[in-house]
Amino acid sequence: MTAPAREIELKFLLAREDAEALLAALPPGETAVKDMVAVYYDTADGRLGRGGFGLRVRRTGERRIQTLKSALGEDGGRDEWEWPVATDVPDQALLAGTPAALPPGAVLEAKFTVTIRRTVRVVEEGEARIEIALDDGMVEAAGRREAIFELELELLSGPAEALGRLAARLGEHVRLTPGAITKAGRGFRLLAGT
Predict the structure, then answer these.
(1) Of 7, 132, 128, which Cα lies nearest the Cα of 73?
(2) Across residues 102-113, what is the average pLDDT?
(3) Disulfide check for 106: which of 94, 102, 134, 177 has CB 3.0–4.6 Å away?
């Protein structure tokens, strides 16, 4: 079975008018801006979603990455499998070595799209490296749309407690509201009309 990476992150909602103050409060580092389009897939009967998995193909420029993510674990992290792919359509064969392997004949369908402009900075926080990502975009599903404006702090290396320390410092400058729903969760909610 393909070994997953473990993703540990904190997600926050914030007011759009606080973006400038947030960016000014970030620790020093090089900032990059990326435009990304992700299409999320599942079977017609929702097999992956029912199993706690999200499957997407994300395009950044000409680069495409197929990503499978599990539901949140007790430690607040998720297992994540990533593969470079050549097209916007997922390669089902890549799922074979994961807990989300599909039975023969299963067909994946595009369910919803997430379009994001991401502002990214990687910083040092004590012994930890953290990716700070400010996402501004839209989820579109079944003719419905929902705006996204959120901050993600993802642990790249080091102790997980550093995420909380950094979030507390940023929270001194802008109001950060913990966000529990993922982009995939937003898309499935729109599909369900809730």
Answers:
(1) 7
(2) 94
(3) 102
Average the pLDDT over 137-153 and give the result.
95
Amino acid at 51: G
Q: What digits encode the pLDDT tens for the residues 108-139?
A: 999 999 999 999 999 999 899 999 999 999 99
What CATH number was assigned to the domain covering residues 5-192? 2.40.320.10
Question: What would the two tokens of residue 76 be?
Answer: 């607040």
| pLDDT at residue 73 tops 80 | no
Contact 23, 133 (CB under 8 A): no
d(CA 145, CA 187) in angstroms, rounded, equals: 9
What pLDDT, on a 0 to 100 scale, did the predictor assign at position 1?
Answer: 61
Where would I find the beta strands (DSSP E) of the chain?
5-13, 31-43, 54-60, 63-69, 77-84, 108-125, 128-141, 144-157, 177-178
d(CA 117, CA 133): 10
State how far the alpha carbon of 11 is from the alpha carbons of 31, 135, 160, in Å: 19, 10, 14
For the chain, the domains span 5-192
3-state SS assignment for residue 129: strand
CA angle at 182 for the pair 28 and 32, rounded to the nearest 5°: 25
Quick one: what percent of the chain has pLDDT higher than 70?
Answer: 97
Supply the pLDDT for residue 146: 95
